Amino acid sequence: MVDFSLGFGYNAPKKAEGVHAMREFIIGKNDAGQRVDRFLSKAMPLLPGALLQKYIRIKRVKCNGARCQRDQRLAEGDVLQVYINDEFFEQPREDNLFLTLFQPKLEILYEDENILLTDKRPGMVVHADETEKVNTLINHIQAYLYQKREWNPKWENAFAPALCNRIDRNTGGIVIAAKNAETLRILTAKIRDREITKKYLCVALGVMNPPEGRLECFLLKDEGKKQVTVYHRPVPGGKSAVTLYRTVRRQGALSLVEAELLTGRTHQIRASFADAGHPLLGDGKYGKGDINRKYSETKQALYSYYIKFDFPTDAGILEYLRGRVFQIKKVPFVEKYFGKGIAE
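The chain above was modelled as a monomer; its predicted structure follows.
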């Protein structure tokens, strides 16, 4: 268990860590009458509310040099002294919104000095989009590493911890994060060159025939609709998509299928299976609404559950990962519909 108070603390402040000895706010006429905590929440929007309350409680916020209470009313001319990390005084931007996450929520599958593997739950976006800016996977990862004091934007010229792969909002599973620039460079190349095997589990409607095989098509992405169209011939702008599949179990009208991506295209599994006549349960774009409603599923039953670092070529500082396999043991829809865990 990580003590998340450490990263935001004010222990032995050092300039190199981006900590300032003190910042002052002189209360003017328009700010008078406000509570201390409410004034500071407006003055420092990047500072999480829970952390602000903690700082007031442990005397990192003082009024006129003396201890103050969170509900203390400010008077014109009062001077608030605040002892916190410099970055909390900055204006909110997309690249520093991770600071507002006081308690990052991550399910960490594996972590070392170079990489972090996390099990992203369905419903969370990996990067900011038009629907969500703060509660993103990358923000939770950056907040986690910041609070562990493994990374601070003040220490870097350009690098920030980054995701090496992405999965859709409503898809769950393993996402790889790079903690340093060299790791990001290596893994980006390995993913591009298909030196990392990624397998998914999904619930397909009906019976796959044959039970094991290969789906090949061309996918043309419509950016406006955020959807792809399947073609069985080359089309301008279309990209080839190849998916291997294997039926693992069957239960009534549902099939548990393992899919391996030989190409990595947007919505590849979802669109390919739907085109083959076996859309994924819960898929709102390519699936069957009446069946989804029957099972009360609003998210596609698709999970990136397996990653193998194959590395047939040199992996530099990540050589120690060669041949390593990471697998999620419990996928919610497997137990829900098939009553068993995932076999080793």
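The first strand starts at residue 23 and ends at 26.
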